[in-house]
Amino acid sequence: MDRALALAGEAAADGDIPVGAVVVDANGEVVGEGRNTRERDGDPTGHAEMLALRAAAAAKGEWRLPGCTLVVTLEPCPMCAGAVVLTRVPRVVLGAWDPKMGACGSVWDIPRDRRSVHRAEVVGGVRGEESTRLLQDFFAGRRP
């Protein structure tokens, strides 16, 4: 989570919502990382999780990521939670819950949906206060 928080800070410095993500393999090695780049790149799919999963797949040479864990500072949205299912990531560790767009238990629960062909364990609230503070500080300067 240290690296994910650092990446979130980098996103904020570029004017993007401060979200960072890393994919860790079964040996504890970071095989992919990402941070929000929607504003910087003008890319609606430029979410930290999507970029981290893409990087991990490229590093592993395989779109399936069994044995890996996605560590992210904010609960994934529906798009990113869908990518977790599609890449077969067995575990998501998240910092702050997202009561507006969260898709790992807050609003929706895509990775644990019993109808899915793949389900992932979700562990939430890991360094959640730090993750929440990053988001609150970012938006405090942008919202009246």
Report what the structure shows.
The protein is α/β, with parallel strands linked by helices. It is 36% helix and 18% strand. The protein has a five-stranded mixed sheet. The protein is globular. The mean pLDDT is 96.
**H/E element sequence:** HEEHHEHEEH
Helix content: 25-40%
Radius of gyration (Å): 14 Å
Which spans have pLDDT < 50 for at least 5 consecutive residues? Answer: none
- Spatial arrangement of strands, main beta sheet: 2-1-3-4-5
Beginning-to-end CA distance, first to last residue: 30 Å
Query: Major sheet, described briefly?
Result: 5 strands, mixed
**Spatial shape:** globular
Mean pLDDT: 96
Helical run tally: 5
Q: How many strands?
A: 5
Task: Quickly give the structural class.
Answer: alpha/beta
Residue share in β-strands: 15-25%
Main attributes?
about 140 residues; alpha/beta; 5-stranded mixed sheet; 5 helices; about 35% helix; globular
Q: What topology does this entry show?
A:
Layout: H1 2-13, E1 20-24, E2 30-35, H2 38-41, H3 48-60, E3 69-74, H4 78-87, E4 91-96, E5 121-123, H5 128-140
Parallel strand pairs: 3-4, 4-5
Antiparallel strand pairs: 1-2, 1-3
